[in-house]
Write a structure and sequence with these properties.
six-stranded antiparallel β-sheet; alpha+beta; Multidrug efflux transporter AcrB transmembrane fold; Alpha-Beta Plaits; 17 strands; flat; 6 domains
């Protein structure tokens, strides 16, 4: 017989669920509250309105603009392709403006030249005007009477000294780019093709959940149209990176969430042998709904990374119905409401402990963890309420006769545990567990780098660089990134191209050549592994300094390269009380994998006393003479000098 509580609980929960669904509909009615902006996940302080506005203006070209070069062997055909693409993209409704030809606002340009004619005047002309105004005036008079002296955008009566004309003539020439007078297009010639510049600006930004994918699809379609005609498109935009990031997030959600879902459904069917037990997945769906609504309500939006990481909630939320479904092995016949009453204290305690664990993350300064904490806690509450209030009513008429293999498997595992405890004492097992955990902690490394959250596709970077092969900043940064990821051949290629683009007198050429040499050395070592090296050192303290140090002062013993980075190649730390001491420095003591003894031919040994515990500065120091990094004889370093 159904009690009053059993009748009212499902109805009350359905009212709550209807309210949550209505709130979710209101949150999504105008636009998607999902966000893909990684900067929202990092700690920071709230800026004032002026700073925020300035940042938005600076980021707008990256987040809303796309630059495309349309190339073709025939110059006129390249112009026609660019014109066609511009018309199609403008008609798509995705872009606020698509520009392929010069559309100069001459009145505004004249005003700008007049207002800034002193500031924009070339240095040579400014010097002539100040130092020799007579000669300047004479040149101006000659220009006025010379019919072949060119033209100025600003009439002579508005600019008597002709400063704006000198500004026009002094503007730097931008490589091989030239304006096509017939069409107004900007055209560059490279690799036997004419390249027309096409610039577009979208109506929304790269953090829109739909726009980046639509722009990427439109670009792919344009490439498909241009290829049969012999055309080629090169594109660069933050929108393309955003589209790739969204695809990556979708794949991860599909694999993590989808894999967990399929596994749980399969387990439920194999264990309970009833299609109706798939209703146990209802708490998972409701939990995801509660978590999403709570995040949007508290933060105004929900980041896609919260969905990716919060998909682990599926495995926790499905535990609630499994607790009382598992009573079907001992309760004959099994009934949902009596089974719930037997497991309700455990379910409630599980909810409380899980929420405490998740909400502890909310107090961290990392917004990503705060969102995940709120999503998970609200999701668990929703799943708990569904499992307690609604699911028993849905399963009220279901009779479950579970398979016996899970029970037998569990019994076999218990028997193995009992046998293990009989052979090995609990303290020994605890020691083995602690040793296992200690080994994991020993190899634990931390990296404070947001780039680990998302990987930038190399193909997009290479395409953007192909559009401007001599852009020195990009070449330098790409070389550094390749070197850090041990792609030494790519680093050599980038830096070699950068070296060719730099002026002969550029001061950075020597450092760049050194980086190329280092990359080639590392490349050679990758193909022929170098034997790990070590140095044996005996460190002693001079007798005259024993009254000037404390036994607890730190002593840092390290090796550094004679020619190379200043960072230590291997380092160990002891105290003054340990002196004299014999230590061995090896590649295992390296602070970074690529900076070790085996990678450098000559090194110097240093021993430093630091009362503050800082390896870079101290009170007393001892140094060895330069020596080969493969020296086998023990070296002696005496700490005897002030550390200046």
């Amino acid at each position: 017989m159904t009690s009053t509580t059993e009748r009212l609980l499902p109805r009350l929960f359905l009212l709550i669920l209807a309210g949550v669904l209505a709130l979710a509909g209101w949150q999504w009615h105008d636009r998607s509250p999902l966000s893909a902006n990684l900067m929202e996940l990092v700690p920071g302080t709230d800026n004032d309105a002026l700073v925020t506005s300035a940042e938005k203006r600076m980021q707008a070209p990256l987040n809303r603009e796309m630059l495309v070069q349309v190339g073709h062997a025939d110059r006129q055909q390249a112009v026609e392709l660019a014109r066609t693409l511009a018309e199609q993209w403008q008609a798509s409704g995705l872009f606020e403006k698509v520009q392929w030809s010069l559309q100069a606002d001459l009145p505004a340009l004249r005003t700008q030249l007049l207002q800034g004619r002193i500031a924009m005047l070339p240095a040579v002309d400014r010097t002539l005007l100040i130092d020799d105004p007579k000669a300047f005036i004479e040149q101006r008079v000659q220009t006025l009477f010379d019919p072949f002296a060119g033209f100025s955008l600003v009439p002579g009566q508005d600019d008597w000294l002709g400063l704006t004309g000198r500004i026009q003539n002094g503007l730097p020439k931008q490589g091989s780019v030239e304006a096509d007078l017939a069409s107004g297009a900007l055209i560059a010639t490279a690799e036997g093709k004419s390249w027309v510049l096409l610039r577009s600006r979208t109506r929304s930004d790269a953090f829109d959940m739909h726009l980046p994918g639509q722009v990427a699809d439109l670009l792919a379609k344009a490439r498909g149209q241009a290829a049969p005609a012999g055309g080629q498109l090169l594109a660069a935009s933050g929108l393309l990176y955003a589209a790739d990031g969204q695809k990556q997030a979708s794949r991860e959600i599909t694999w993590v969430g989808g894999g967990a879902t399929v596994g749980i459904l399969l387990l439920l069917l194999l264990a309970f042998r009833r299609w109706s037990v798939l209703l146990a997945f209802v708490p998972v769906v409701v939990g995801m709904l509660f978590g999403a609504v709570a995040c949007v309500a508290l933060f105004g939006s929900m980041h896609v990374m919260t969905l990716v990481l919060g998909s682990s909630l599926i495995g926790v939320a499905v535990d609630y119905p499994l607790h009382y479904l598992s009573k079907s092995w001992s309760m004959k016949p099994w009934r949902s409401w009596p089974a719930l009453r037997l497991t309700l204290p455990g379910l409630s305690l599980s909810l409380i402990t899980s929420c405490i664990g998740y909400l502890a993350l909310a107090w961290t300064p990392f917004p990503a963890l705060t969102q995940i904490a709120v999503f998970s806690a609200a999701g668990l509450i929703g799943a708990y309420l569904t499992a307690v209030c609604l699911l028993p009513a849905l399963l009220a008429r279901v009779e479950i006769r579970p398979a016996q293999w899970p029970l037998k498997l569990a019994q076999q595992m218990l028997d193995c545990r009992t046998a293990l405890l009989q052979r090995i004492n609990t303290p020994i097992l605890l020691a083995l567990l602690l040793a296992f955990c200690g080994g994991g902690l020993w190899h634990l490394t931390t990296k404070n780098d947001i780039r680990q959250w998302v990987s930038a596709p190399q193909a997009l970077t290479d395409e953007a660089l192909q559009a401007d092969r001599k852009e020195v900043t990009s070449l330098g940064l790409l070389g550094i990134a390749a070197f850090e990821t041990q792609r030494y051949q790519a680093a050599v290629d980038y830096w070699t191209r950068l070296l060719a683009a730099l002026p002969a007198q550029d001061a950075s050429r020597s450092a760049l050549e050194g980086g190329i040499a280092r990359a080639r050395e590392n490349l050679a070592q990758q193909s022929s592994p170098v034997k790990a090296r070590s140095l044996k050192v005996r460190v002693a303290l001079a007798e005259s300094l024993k009254n000037n140090v404390q036994p607890t002062d730190s002593v840092f013993i390290f090796a550094r390269a004679i020619k190379g980075p200043a960072a230590p190649l291997a380092v160990k730390r002891i105290t003054v009380a340990d002196l004299p001491a014999e230590v061995e420095l090896s590649d295992a003591d390296a602070m970074m994998p690529q900076l070790n003894l085996s990678n450098f031919a000559q090194v110097q040994l240093v021993a430093r006393v630091s009362r503050a515990g800082q390896p870079t500065t101290g009170e007393w120091v001892g140094r060895s003479q330069p020596l080969a990094s493969d020296t086998e004889a023990q070296q002696v370093v005496t700490i005897d000098s002030p550390d200046n």
